[in-house]
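__Protein archive entry__

___
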Amino acid sequence: MMRVLGTDLVSDDARPYFVWDEDLSNGEIRELLRSASEPERLRLLAKILREARDEHVWAYTTPEEVARLLPRLLPMLGRRRAFWVYLVEGWRADGLL
């Protein structure tokens, strides 16, 4: 039985709402982002960028990581692609990256 989806992005045992199709906890997501193969890390990070509210993304990654990986993430971002390009370009233009 899958864990209940929720908005708790802190507790390691909680299952965040944006992994509606996978039974992963916050702790498991963070561990995969640290230690999984590169294709799996990119897949999971792209899912977070696509499915999570933009302010919730930062519970799992940093602006620097998103900007660094953006060229490889773009094909997996779907309708959110333009948003992330706009955001990263704006950070760079403002000297934040």
The first strand starts at residue 5 and ends at 6.
